[in-house]
Amino acid sequence: MDKLGHSYTAYKLSTLNYAAWRWARMPRKKAVFLSGGIAWTYQLSVEILDGFSAQWGFSWADLTANTAGAGLFIGQQLGWDEQRFQLKFGYKPSPYAEIRPNTLGSNFPERLLKDYNAQSYWLCVAPGTFFKESKFPKWIQVGFGYSIDAKLNGDLNTYTDLNTGKTYFARQEYAISLDIDWSQLPIKKPWLRKVLKPLNAIKIPFPSVFWRNGVCYFGMF
Fold first, then answer.
1. Which pLDDT belongs to residue 95?
2. DSSP state for residue 73 in the 8-state scheme
3. Tens of pLDDT along 108-153?
4. What is the rounded distance in angstroms from the CA atom of residue 213 to the CA atom of residue 182?
5. Which of 58, 101, 123, 154 is the most buried (most CB within 10 A)?
6. Do residues 60 and 39 both lie within one domain?
7. Is the same domain home to 108 and 172?
8. Contacts for 50 with CB less than 8 Å, ≥ 6 apart
9. How far is Cα 93 from Cα 59, in angstroms, rounded to an integer?
10. Pairing of strands 119-125, 85-91
11. What pTM value is reported for the model?
């Protein structure tokens, strides 16, 4: 989950930078490399600071995830001049933050960042963007999601609540769902398109098929 968060951040920083540079009339190719480079360098500075921290230390895995996120943006923008594969973020409140508020967050802003049980990351793709003559709407996406459940300890996959004696076992979750590419909606008003496009950062709530411990479920993921 942590590595997906690194990739997502690098990807979204790249897209935001690119929009700003193109608005400033920078040439497309130059804007692509500069945007991805700024996002990657920004996160590199965080990794360097972590390297001087006795608690964290420098992480090559984090740096690899940062590179993957920026690379996903750069490769698509150079190849297709659009983002057909998009990383998105989902959030749902989890019951585990109340058990370890110091670790998972005591309020909403903290839980949004620290409670991985509440987060999900999605790779969303619009099949219609690959076929020019296709009648399949380009704004309909298929999303592949990943999350975790009952992860209360960062170092271990088990945690025993001393107050209740209950032991929690961390589990991985995989999901398939539908989503919307707001930039591909057939909207004629330019200002409305610009208002809706940032919504591509978020996975909209939608029924999903998901798997946990080899069991298939259907519901809101």
1. 93
2. H
3. 999 999 999 999 999 999 999 998 777 889 999 999 999 999 999 9
4. 33
5. 123
6. yes
7. yes
8. 56, 57, 58, 59, 62
9. 29
10. antiparallel
11. 0.91
Structure tokens at 219: 């519901």
CA atoms within 13 A on the CB side of 13: 23
170: nearest Cα among 184, 152, 187, 186: 152
pLDDT number for residue 221? 65
The Cα 175–Cα 220 span in angstroms is 10
Beta bridge partners of 179: 141
* Through-space distance between the first and last CA atoms of the chain, rounded to whole angstroms: 16
Is residue 188 exposed (0-12), middle (13-18) or buried (19+ Cβ within 10 Å)?
A: exposed
What gap in Å lies between CA 144 and CA 123, rounded to an integer? 5
Report pLDDT for 215: 85
The single residue listed with the structure tokens 């009339």 is: 25
Do residues 35 and 21 touch, judged by C-beta distance below 8 A? yes
> Two tokens at 114?
């620290």
Same domain, 51 and 73: yes
Contacts of 44 (CB under 8 A, 6+ apart): 63, 66
Residue 34: give the domain boundaries.
1-81
Structure confidence at residue 47 (pLDDT):
93
CA 177 to chain centre: 15
If one counts the domains in the chain, the total is 2
Question: In terms of domains, do 103 and 28 share one?
Answer: no
Please identify every stretch of the chain with a pLDDT value under 50, giving residue numbers as ranges: none
- Residue finishing a domain among 53, 81, 109: 81
Task: Record the tokens describing residue 2, joined without a space.
Answer: 């942590």
